[in-house]
């Protein structure tokens, strides 16, 4: 189930940072042309049983523009995998706010539907691999619809954010140690040894870093600012040195395992985290709190479904 939870993490993150409705509109507007209409609606196009009504078409247009940050000018390649093949090559961008742009998009939908119907006539939708791809697309659309249905009811009040700020954000940050680090990086061990001797004799770390380090930080006297342990930022030996040194202490020489670079670091200062004011980070905390509640809601949904579903996963077959 860990894999499923990771997938939902990605989906939730995207949904909150781009907008739930935008993603659904993008799916409906680009991948899933309307296949029916209500009685009395004006019909833009009809191919056999497939019908595209004017309101449905306009909803697709509105959704695509919204998903494009409100910009009605859309690059053709953003309209789907086949758009660039079907739309004439001299058209790079269409403006969906204009009649001309809407006609181009309508023509694309009609051509795509004709191709799809011809593929079905030839039985291509029955081929196993294609049927699996169709199922994957169906699953994706249904999952987004279900998540939108769940997430639309999740709310966060100002009091919720304030409590989260005081009880979680501040306490967590105040317990995180930040270390101000300076570094000197050179491309030979012999050079590093010379510099280390100079430092041990009282040489100024920042001055030596400025004059002899090959790292970008040399411009700032080797200053990397206040760091919090982030394993992907630097290699293991770097963090081993940084996290074990005391304030004002200088490390020995250690090498980057992937490069011909030799390091010496010094801890200039150690301090606890300093929380930002609530007003400054309110919006970020609101998003985080919504995400947290979304995880809880989806986790509950998955457990409820799992308890009433016949599920068999043989992950022991994976190598």
Topology of this protein?
Elements: H1 2-18, H2 20-31, E1 43-47, E2 50-53, H3 54-67, E3 73-75, H4 83-86, E4 93-95, H5 99-121, H6 128-151, H7 158-174, E5 177-186, H8 189-200, H9 205-212, E6 223-227, H10 236-244, E7 254-255, E8 262-272, H11 278-307
Antiparallel strand pairs: 1-2, 3-4, 5-6, 5-8, 7-8
Helix pairs in contact: 1-2, 1-11, 2-3, 2-6, 7-11
Notes on the protein architecture:
It is a single chain. With 319 residues, this protein is an alpha+beta fold. It has three domains: 2-151, no CATH class; 158-170 and 276-317; 177-272, Chitinase A, domain 3 (Roll), CATH 3.10.50.40. It is 53% helix and 13% strand. It contains eleven helices and eight strands. The chain has a four-stranded antiparallel sheet with strand order 6-5-8-7. A two-stranded antiparallel ribbon has the order 1-2. A two-stranded antiparallel ribbon has the order 3-4. A hairpin with a 2-residue loop joins strand 1 and strand 2. The model is unreliable at 1-37 (pLDDT under 50).
